[in-house]
Every structure is written in structure tokens, then in C-alpha cells.
Recover the amino acids of this structure.
């Protein structure tokens, strides 16, 4: 049956505040249940190492198919989880499932990195760094194969706390990435003080890169800055060959976007990695043009 979209529902009930409220409350209950009963799914979007053309790793992205409303965007349910205070449960669930899947990849001989999105309030999960390390040990994952992506808006949170957390994670070998870089609040002061190891340039600068001289200047300068800070640069939202060519010229390390692959269910991601690992690195570039 065709799912009625959530937006349509909200629009219909918008005039009726009480029913709108009821819908919200029942969705929150459903989300809580979905987290508890393992009903969310993880998709993996491949990240490509621009130097070698091989798969560097993946970013895990949560997916929720509601029994009645169908696919609900993570922009919606992650925000909802943040608003009602269950984001920590969501994040810890994602982490556990992601490590299980990564362990399976490693067991099958495909050692790949994994990036996990962390929400602002997650930084206050008690003893977060140790919890990540313990979970990684439980699944026999080397910590240096893990990145946590902190969205740039996390920079408005308690600075000293953030610094301690990032230091603790780095000391354990876990990479810390600043996600959506360029859209939020990270000042040059923060960049100079926080020991993060990766900078992820927001897709709004990357998507139309070849058409915008301004975006080219920004991406090039950001890459230069990151390089001299000794920080890795990832570009997200790469959709065209032209964008990729520019990123490679600027010296961006890792590239992610629809040009290579949409986020994939784990089984499909695993098949993609297996296929890539079975061909020569030079053949990978050809494979891309066969898409
Ligand atoms: P994000 O962390 O910036 O993730 C990248 C988003 O860009 C993903 O959207 C991905 O599907 C999309 N994307 C990738 N390549 C392209 C491209 O070439 N073009 C375009 N237009 N888009 C591209 P998605 O999966 O809908 O997730 C949206 C946001 O929701 C994420 O943004 C992240 O902030 C949040 N999110 C998703 N999963 C989780 C999660 O498990 N935990 C938390 N805390 N947040 C999550
Ligand atoms: Mg991200
Ligand atoms: Mg994000
Ligand atoms: Mg992002």
C-alpha cells in the first residue's frame, strides 16, 4: 500500500492543534519503541580515498521506516529524538549496530573505517570516550578505524568539556571530525585549540563547486588550512565528475557523495566493498564511469 507522507499528515492536522499534538506524541512513542526493538536500519555511504580510488570507509546514516507513514527522514526523527531527550539512546544504538556490522566486514577481510554522527547533547553522555572504547573492544574493532562526526553546531556547547572529550577520544585513537564545516559556529579560535583530526566540508559548498568561483576559493582555502593544521579533509555531497576533479586538485583526501554511491543498506555496501577489493585500484576509476 502507498504510504501517506508524514508531511501530508502534519499539513492536514495543522489546523487542528490537538490532533497535531497527538500525532507528535504517538510518533515519539513509536520512535522510542523502534530504538528499543531494533527497528531502525543503518545505511552506509561509501567514502572514497581520492589518492588511491579505493574505499576509505563509510558514514553510517540511520533510517526509520514507520509502519504507517513509511520512510521518515533522519532530519525529522533525529531532531525529534533531540527535542524529547532520547537522542543518546538513538546514538548508542547506532554505535552498537554499526560496530556489529563493521566487525562483520573485518571478519570477511575488508578492513574499513566507519564514521558515526554524534548530536550536540551526546557529548554529555557520561564517560562517552570510555564507552566508545569499551564497545569497540567488545566487537574487536581497532579504535583507529572509528571516526565520530560532531556537527559544527556543537561548537556552541561547553568549550572546556568539548576539549576534554575530543582529547580523550583522540588519546584512544578515535578520530574526531567536524561535520557540515562552514555552515555553523566553529571560530578559528576553536579550530586552533581543539584536537580534532578531520574536517568535513559541508555539501552546500561542494555540490555546485565547478559552477561557483566563490565556493572554489572557500574549499581550496579550507583545504590548505586543514592541511597545514595536519587535519584530514573530507568533502561531502560530491555529485559530479567536475567537482571530483577540483577536489582532487585542491588535495582533498576523501570524497563522499551520490557521484560514487547513495547510502546503501549494509548488505549492499558489503557487496560494493567486496567488488572494489577484488579489482585493481586503477580499474575502480573505470568502474565508476560504468555506473
Ligand atoms: P550528515 O551527517 O551531513 O550526512 C550527510 C547527508 O547528506 C545524508 O543525508 C546523505 O544521504 C546526504 N548526501 C550524501 N551524498 C549526497 C549528495 O551527493 N547529494 C546530496 N544532496 N546529499 C547527499 P541523510 O542520510 O538524509 O541524513 C541527514 C542528516 O541526518 C545527517 O547529515 C545527520 O546530521 C543526520 N543523521 C543521519 N543519521 C544519523 C545518526 O545516526 N545520528 C545522528 N545524530 N544524526 C544522523
Ligand atoms: Mg555526518
Ligand atoms: Mg551531521
Ligand atoms: Mg554533513
Amino acid at each position: 500500500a502507498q504510504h501517506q507522507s508524514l508531511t501530508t499528515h502534519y499539513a492536514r492536522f495543522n489546523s487542528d492543534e490537538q490532533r497535531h499534538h497527538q500525532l507528535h506524541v504517538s510518533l515519539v512513542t513509536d520512535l522510542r519503541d523502534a530504538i528499543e526493538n531494533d527497528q531502525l536500519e543503518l545505511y552506509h555511504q561509501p567514502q572514497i580515498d581520492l589518492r588511491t580510488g579505493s574505499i576509505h570507509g563509510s558514514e553510517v546514516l540511520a533510517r526509520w521506516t514507520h509502519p504507517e507513514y513509511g520512510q521518515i527522514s533522519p532530519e525529522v526523527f533525529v531532531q525529534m529524538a533531540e527535542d524529547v531527550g532520547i537522542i543518546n539512546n538513538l546514538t548508542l544504538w547506532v554505535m552498537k549496530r554499526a560496530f556489529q556490522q563493521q566487525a562483520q566486514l573485518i571478519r570477511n577481510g575488508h578492513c574499513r573505517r566507519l564514521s558515526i554522527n554524534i548530536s550536540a547533547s551526546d557529548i554529555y553522555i557520561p564517560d562517552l570516550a570510555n564507552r566508545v572504547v569499551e564497545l569497540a573492544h567488545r566487537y574487536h574493532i581497532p579504535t583507529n578505524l572509528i571516526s565520530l562526526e560532531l556537527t559544527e553546531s556543537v561548537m556552541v556547547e561547553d568549550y572546556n568539556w568539548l576539549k576534554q572529550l575530543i582529547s580523550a577520544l583522540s588519546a584512544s585513537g578515535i578520530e574526531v571530525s567536524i561535520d557540515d564545516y562552514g555552515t555553523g559556529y566553529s571560530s578559528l579560535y576553536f579550530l586552533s585549540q581543539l584536537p580534532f583530526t578531520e574536517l568535513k566540508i559541508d555539501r552546500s559548498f561542494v555540490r555546485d563547486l565547478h559552477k561557483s568561483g566563490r565556493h572554489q576559493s572557500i574549499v581550496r582555502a579550507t583545504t590548505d588550512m586543514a592541511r597545514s593544521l595536519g587535519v584530514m579533509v573530507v568533502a561531502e555531497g560530491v555529485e559530479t565528475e567536475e567537482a571530483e576533479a577540483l577536489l582532487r586538485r585542491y588535495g582533498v583526501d576523501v570524497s563522499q557523495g551520490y557521484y560514487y554511491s547513495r547510502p546503501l543498506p549494509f548488505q549492499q555496501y558489503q557487496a560494493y566493498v567486496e567488488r572494489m577489493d577484488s579489482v585493481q585500484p586503477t580499474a575502480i576509476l573505470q568502474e565508476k564511469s560504468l555506473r
About this structure: The mean pLDDT is 91.
